[in-house]
Design goal:
5% of the residues lie in helices and 39% in strands. The longest helix has 12 residues.
């Protein structure tokens, strides 16, 4: 039976010989006859005791951060983070990291070399994971760090975020200001100027990874018909 933390346990294992061959005993008797007289021969020892001594320790761990909030993140973007696992005992710590198994857990990926491992006494080991949201909206999931040497020791790390779809197009400028214009049928010369009539340029930039097809439409009230009538 094991004692408290920091104590020592002592015991013994008994090994008893219950059956042996007669030829082996006769050989043993001849060897004893070389050194002892018949009256001085020791009795045969059929029982051996193996002492067992152990020093007891409690395995304790600590997780540095139990709640992680990524805030607003674009969909499909990769975001890496690290959780620190500290071994607070004098014995090596064996641990295992497991995900919740829910549908949201597919957006979390634990580094393969950090899912199962060992931490030296009083040492710290980083556990790396990647968050990649697949759907827009609020995200809430968790993963668990378990102490394999103590089934009652487990820490749950909560991951929160709000994923949103990033814009695929960028417009420059965001507003077109022609300034005061006289009603006239004459079309100004094609030139770029701001605030004094003429032609202005609108730049469309594709910031998405794939190709995009764009269509530009103008509100009817912004069109001037021929003859100056609105």
């Amino acid at each position: 039976r094991l004692g408290a933390d920091g104590g020592a346990a002592q015991g013994a294992i008994s090994i008893e010989l219950v059956r042996y061959e007669a030829a082996l005993r006769a050989q043993h008797e001849r060897r004893l006859a070389r050194f002892f007289l018949p009256s001085e021969r020791p009795p045969p020892q059929t029982v051996r005791r193996l002492p067992v001594v152990a020093s007891l320790r409690v395995s304790a761990m600590e997780v540095g951060q139990r709640s992680i909030n990524f805030g607003r993140r674009p969909v499909r973007d990769l975001h890496e983070n690290t959780v620190l696992l500290r071994n607070r005992s004098a014995a090596p710590l064996l641990y295992k990291v497991s995900k919740s198994g829910l549908s949201a857990s597919f957006d979390l990926s634990i580094a393969k070399e950090d899912r199962l491992g060992c931490v030296r006494p009083y040492a710290v080991r980083p556990i790396r994971f990647v968050f990649r949201p697949s759907l827009p909206g609020p995200f809430l999931d968790s993963f668990t760090v378990r102490n394999l040497q103590d089934v009652s020791s487990a820490v749950q790390v909560t991951v929160k975020a709000h994923a949103h779809r990033s814009a695929s197009l960028h417009l420059s400028p965001h507003a077109l200001d022609f300034g005061p214009l006289a009603i006239s049928a004459a079309v100004p010369p094609p030139r770029v100027q701001h605030g004094a009539g003429g032609t202005q340029r609108l730049t469309i930039v594709n910031v998405a990874k794939g190709a995009r097809t764009c269509s530009v439409s103008v509100a009817p009230e912004l069109l001037l018909l021929e003859g100056g009538a609105a």
